[in-house]
Hints:
This protein is mainly alpha-helical. Helices cover 74% and strands 7% of the residues.
Amino acid sequence: LAGVGLLTVLALLAVGRSSEARRDSVLYPLLGTVYVIVPIALIIALRGTSEGRLWISLLAWVTWFTDSWALIGGRLIGRTRLAPTISPGKTVEGALVGVSFGIVAGAVIMLIVGKGFVVG
């Protein structure tokens, strides 16, 4: 309900403005709101399922492993910049190391909790 109210206010602010002003005052806040609200709503919905805690924990652990190992891999072997204008410190090698360790972490966690590799 709060999201709908915010969207209505932003839409009203957009009326009669230039495209640049509309982008700055409406589009960016709208996208920011969606960027925050949608994942939170999905996590809340997921928490209500029978194995919600498991999946939210898995999400948190895999994110932590991926991010941490991307930093470590990038510092140790990173040479090729991933997106220099957006984030100059990110490297392709760091991203590959991070994703690899995230996959391994997810698989290990699923084996520890007795789910295996295929959930069904």
